[in-house]
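Ticket 4471: requesting a sanity check on a complex prediction with serine. Repro inputs:
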Amino acid sequence: MKLTADQLREKYLSFFASKGHAIISGASLIPENDPTVLFTTAGMHPLVPYLLGEPHPSGRRLTDVQTCVRTGDIDAVGDTCHLTFFEMLGNWSLGEYFKKEAITWSFEFLTQELGFTADQLSVTVFEGEGDIPRDDESIDIWKSLGIPEERIYALPKSDNWWGPAGTSGPCGPDSEMFIDTGVDCCGEECRPGCHCGKYIEIWNDVFMQYNKTAEGKYEPLKQNNVDTGMGVERTICMMNGYETVYETELFAPLMLKIKELTTIQAENEEQHTRAKRIIADHMRTAVFILGDPKGGVKPGNMGANYVLRRLIRRSVRYAKMLGISTGYTGELAKLVIDNYKHVYPELETNRTTIVTELTAEESRFEKTLTSGQREFNKVATALVTHKQTTLSGRTAFKLYDTYGFPLEFTEELANEQGLAVDRAGYDKAFKKHQELSKQGANTFKGGLADNTVATTRLHTATHLLHKALQIVLGEHATQKGSNITTARLRFDFSHPAKMTPEEKQQVEDIVNEQIKRNLPVKVETMTIEEAKEKGATALFAAKYGEQVKVYTAGDFSMEVCGGPHAETTGELGGFKIKKEESSSAGVRRIKAIITNVN
Ligand code: SER
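Returned structure tokens:
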């Protein structure tokens, strides 16, 4: 059956709605309040509190489409199906149905709605480890549905255990579904999970029964959950009989353009194909990160900003290899925006930011790429001539600091020459530089698990700050971005001018006043329409009729938000603005901390 991505999303949501699931909105790509990960990596991610037992406002059966960024597989990008950005279709049972329903519905959807035959399917289940036995229940369910034993593989934890998304949180054994592409096995060991291209994983049913604690222990959860995730790009690729995801309508216009822009004749066809795919993948990911409704991630040197920079710069390097001239990032970004804006209107809203930021980063890197590469070649040639195998941390740091080469980028260049990079040496040089410049030291303070109280309080402080800004500056001062670490909050908002010292003082005073009042922070569930009617600030488009959580701090602030928050404003102790600066045109940025906290 031929199907477009639009049709697939629609079919999936309707199918699970017909099985009693509430259709909810996907969350931002930038996780709120969770410093354990830089991006949303799966549909379950924004649902972690509910998988842990908190009631979800929309009920116990949910379905959605979630945009995800994963850079763990970045080295595999360029093959037929690995991507750094993808859309995940998901359905969840929060302590309601379990393996039987989940697997049966997966099978029903694949065969009856999408038209795959049982013969095309191979599945995997958890083979067991330690106290946790082999998942015979799932094996029996698959058999009862008509999947023969020889196409049901019991595999170890490395294959069939999912999560947690960060370092701690819900996780469990899973059962993955693969389409056999019909190509020959690459060898005797070839089986689902092998990357040769015979088996493409399109869906994963996770049975989330455990919570991994910060200490690494697996504790049974209060409830047995189901978390599933189906990849949009891979599924339509398989349905349309394409060999790679780049042939689907989600990539086709990009690939065409990249081909048009390429000016260097391929000596090595395979290498060129890989380069084109990497450019397409990385540009699409960069556009979604820059266009995220929550905003705030720009190319930079830390955390998510660094990942974005790495993606853009890596693409620039491959573009150079193909002889693609400067300015290509803007051209490709426009195609991505046009291709997706009917599903993700925020891309259209943020069109200017996306194109401007990409072009600026491209030209920043262009300025130093050639000289940096010359420096690298000089050192690498000397090392290879002297039969050395390691590039020093100091050189890697110089390439980073002077020429803007992300470490991983230098590693890639080095690997191509058969060299390794002394990472520890790089870290040492980096730390030394940091101490010297005293920059960004706080950003590395981290560890999360024992500090969630701090981030929770900063989250509440963000609501108070948002309201205070609107009181002092006017209603136009609305949120453009937010980011919280354990040490500080960062808040971007619309405002055309630098804040005066008096304005800053007033805002600080108002927030401190609300802290002193020790207001109760309460949460209520209602539809998005009710929330708006009550005057709640609602930042992100929720679907009509969707149930949302509304947090109030006494009579002072009311925002639609996922939480979690402090219980009272008094917990915050005190509030201090550390910095007010420009973030981008018409957007200001405040960094603030809470003080006097127990
Ligand atoms: N969380 C699981 C995955 O990402 C299922 O969605 O594969």
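Notes from triage: Residues 42-44, 90, 162, 204, 206, 227-229 surround serine (CB under 6 Å). Leaving this open until the requester confirms.
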